[in-house]
């Protein structure tokens, strides 16, 4: 029975892969819309999406910690992504302490401490297993554009100007912090389970964050986009940032689900 189900699912994945880009986009949009409807039906308070998103991200970090402590290797992990993640988490934690003081602050603190521990292990304890030559995307390529954009587009609240700019910066940086990890995996083609679980968790987390904004915009008939912001651009830019990260992780998530369904331990990416 298991083989038949696996074979049928594998045929389905292969059939989808052979379709034209328009058909793939249609299936993707249909799946996303169905997921959003299901989330809205089961979760009434959309603010809970952010709690769920941060919790899933923390779970992904726990998987990395398990890998580093049991397997004693950091192969397949991008130090650049971990350092970018620590950067936006530190900024967000500072802003959260100044602006919110809620469950998000606690989750961000726990995730930041875990991420710093992962960075320490990669840089010092497990440096011999780190593939530095495959992790060569300069961080300033990502940090500088986010900082410049944050100077012009930020939330319009009663907090200090610096806090608003810093909050915008961490939102933008979070949207693209995973790029070094994705490029790293694209070079290796085969991703071992722990790293794959971690990146998939990031994909789920970003989808939940994006779902909050999309549902809010839908329920307000678009008016929610222009409730706050400098020059009315803040919320549309946030939605765009969330969508960008969800999009760049979607392709990996597809191959992750395919590998899991077929019972494969390693996730295999197609050639570029």
TrEMBL record:
InterPro entries: ER_ret_rcpt (IPR000133). Coiled coil: none annotated. It is found in: Endoplasmic reticulum membrane. The keyword S-adenosyl-L-methionine does not apply. Its main location: endoplasmic reticulum. Keywords: Endoplasmic reticulum, ER-Golgi transport, Membrane, Protein transport, Receptor, Transmembrane, Transmembrane helix, Transport. It holds the Pfam family ER_lumen_recept. One of its GO terms (cellular component) is endoplasmic reticulum membrane. GO terms for molecular function: ER retention sequence binding. It is a multi-pass membrane protein. The keyword Cytoplasm does not apply. GO terms for biological process: protein retention in ER lumen; protein transport; vesicle-mediated transport. The chain crosses the membrane at residues 21-43, 103-120, 140-159, 165-184, 196-215. Belongs to the ERD2 family. This is ER lumen protein retaining receptor. The lineage of its organism: Eukaryota, Viridiplantae, Streptophyta, Embryophyta, Tracheophyta.
